[in-house]
Amino acid sequence: MPNTFFTADPHFNHAKIIQHCNRPFSCVEEMDEAMIENWNTTVGHRDKIIVLGDYVFYSKRAVTDPMGIFRRLNGQKHLIIGNHDREATFKLPWAWVKDTYFLKHLNQEGIWLSHYPHRSWRNSFHGSWHLFGHNHGNMPPYGKSFDIGVDCWDFTPVEFEIIKMRMDELEGFHE
Length: 175
Description:
alpha/beta
């Protein structure tokens, strides 16, 4: 049975993100290759993966073709739009592209997916979870929410069961 994975903010092809986020890579090629390897070691061909924004950085100096990166990555890929995602990113062969999404089938309460962190989200006072990116590990969990970005998870997508264990440790909101 396929598993479901989540990630955010890989910023493939973005050389300056290495300095901005103090990533442990000497160059963009090294960063991209490490994240592709981590992704493919973790995510199987039949698995589902939802990227919560900032998938790839487009520039005239880009080292790698974004479609080339996309084709190398395992899984059925879905995109929640981030602030660095552009029209060209939307044209990659994603299963779907959405601004935000309320995922209902993995847990009883649902999961609010957004690139940005929210202080309140759909059903947050009824136990739903919230996964986000954008902050590169600079925002602590709030209620049943946390940053799912690569900077928080050793540059590797995170499987739903690991997220579930983490959520069980967090204090939710009360009515």
